[in-house]
Amino acid sequence: MTSPNPAPAPAPTPSQTVGPFFGYALPYEGGPEVVPSWRPGAVRVHGQVLDGAGVTVPDALVEIWQADEHGAIPRREGGLRRGGRGFSGFGRCGTDPAGRYWFDTVKPGATGGSAPYIAVLVFARGLLKPVFTRLYFPEDAAAHESDPVLADVPASRRDTLIAEREGDGAYRFDVHLQGERETVFFGYY
Known about the structure:
By secondary structure, this protein is mainly beta. It has helices at residues 22-25, 141-144, 148-151, and strands spanning 42-50, 61-65, 90-94, 100-106, 117-123, 131-136, 164-165, 170-172, 175-176. The chain is globular and about 80 Å long. The relative contact order is 0.21.
């Protein structure tokens, strides 16, 4: 005999994010110091990671990859133990309780027909994988016109990829994960 009220079909199991664990496993001492702050030509890149409501994300991790000031991409080991020597082109910084991150680095030179940029990855709760974006520099507006990646971004959204210059040698780049001011993110396959 069949039951008049059969059991409902099981629902799919929701996907789960891993973490937050970034403050325990991925940051390392000196991670935000791609170059020493005293190095000639050093710049500070800083900002906040914000969620869709504009609230800061205190447990995100920001990672950067970039060329050096001449546009050369580093091709040697040594990203974690720099000791003030060389340039690895890589940095990693966990956000603080106010969602802030910072890097001491150099402004990269242009590579492969692109305007100078820094590749930015953001790991955060609620994300199954990091999101990828680019940070461009405001003084390179002429080069932005011919950048092949920026050409694919609607003109109304390009400003989410351009840092704000703050004083001598500092740039602010806030990452908005969602919402009205959402940063443009790219898919890499």
